[in-house]
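Notes on consecutive records. When two proteins share a document, each keeps its own sequence and its own C-alpha cell line. Never mix them. Below: protein one.
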Amino acid sequence: MSYGTVESLRKIPLFEQLSDEDLDEIAQHLIERRYPRNATVMEEGLPGDYMYVIREGRVKVTKLSEDGREKILEMLGEGAFVGEMALLDQRPRSATVKTLSPARLLALSRGDFLSLLRRNADLALHVIQELTRRLRETDDQASSLSFLRVKDRTKGLLRRMADEPPDGGLQRMTPSLTHQQIADMIGTSRETVTRVVKELKQDGWLEQAGKQYLVPNEA
C-alpha cells in the first residue's frame, strides 16, 4: 500500500536524507498498521519479518528478566524505528514492543529493507548511527546500575528522556512516565522511585506537570 507524500516521509528522521526518487519507491512498500493502547507489536523470542517506523503514538521496548519481571529498555515516539535487528541478523526478536498509546506504525518487510540498505548509503549510515546510539545508551545504563545511586540514576534517566525546549528555555519536559516505568528502566522498586522523586522535588531540581516531569536544561 502506498503511503502519503514525499514531504510527509521526509519528516521521519530515518528517511530525511533520501532523494525524492527513493522516497517515492519506499512509499510503495510501506504498510500502515494501527494499534490500540497496550497492543503487542513484536514479541521477544518470535521470528520477525518486518521493521516499524512510528508515525504516531508511543511504544515501550521491554525484555523479561530471569525472575520473570518486565524490564523497560526504552520508550520511543514519533519518528523512531524498531525491529530492524531481526531483519539484519535473521534471529528471533530480542525484545517485546508494546504500545503506550494508540499508534500508527509503518511496516517495511525484510526484503524491501535490505534492498534499500544495499542501494542507499545514507539510509544504511542512519541505521548504523541509531544502532550505535542504542548500544552506547545500553552501556551507560549498565554502568549506572553498577556505580551510581538510585537518585543519580533517576536524574540521568529523566535527562535522557526529556526533549530540548523549542524556545531555548530553562527546562525540558519528559514524556508521560509512571513511577513503575521509571523503576523498571533503572532497576529498582516503585516505592524507591516515589521517595526519590519526592526528594528531587524538595531539592528544587524536579517539577511535575501531570505525569510529565520538568528538568533543568543543563549544558
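Protein two starts on the next line and is unrelated to protein one.
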Amino acid sequence: MFRDTIDGINNVFETDVFPGAVILVVGPPGSLKSGFTYSILSKHLLNTSEFGMYMTLEETTESHLRNMQSLGIDIPDNLLISDYSDIRKRFEDSEEHPDFLEMINGVIKFFKNKEGDNFTIFGLDSLGALYSLTDVENLRAKMFHFFKVLREQKLTSLIIMETPKLSNITNTTGSEGFLVDGIIEMGNIETQHDIMLYTQVQKMRACSHSRKKHLVEITPEGLSILGPVFE
C-alpha cells in the first residue's frame, strides 16, 4: 500500500505496511506532513479502483486542494476530501448531537457501508485539531476506541500530528505512540544556506524498513524521496 507510491519510497520500505495499520505522521510545521500523507493516498488510489477518504479539520477542502496542486500532487476521483463543515452538515438535521469524534466515526461507517471492502485507506489532518474538538475527559479511552474503529473497518489510516520544532518525538506523541502501529517522522535539517526536508520511520509493526533519515524533495511531478541524509 506504501510501496510503489511516492517516487523513491521503496528505498525506505522493504516490505509493505499491512492493511488496516494505524500510522502517525508527525513533525513540526512546514515539514510536508500533509503533502506526504496526501501523496500516499492519491498515488495508491491512482493505481487502483479502491476508495479513500482524506479528512481535513484544519482548512477548507478548497484550500487543501490548492496546496496539493501547488506540490504537483494529482487529485484522483476515487479520493473523497472532507472538511470540518462537511462533517457538521451531515448531522445538522439530526435530533441527536454527538460529539465530534462520534461524528467522524459515523462518517467513516457511512462510507464503509456504502463502499464496502473498496474503502481501504483513510487520512486525518490533524490529531491536534481533533483534540480541540473533543471532550478531553477519558481522552485516551476515546482514542483507543477511535483507532479500534479504524482497524475494525480495515482502513489503513494515516493520522497527522504536529509536534513542536526540535522536539523529542518520543516525548510528544504521549499515549498515541503506544496505541498506533507505526510512526513516520517528517522533519527538517537547517544548514548554512538551506533547509533540507527528510522522512524517517520511527516504528512500523510487521514491516521491514530503513531507520535512516531520507531526504525529501518537491519536484514538478510531486514528492520524491532521495537517499539517506548521512551515509
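For the record: The first helix runs from residue 33 to 46.
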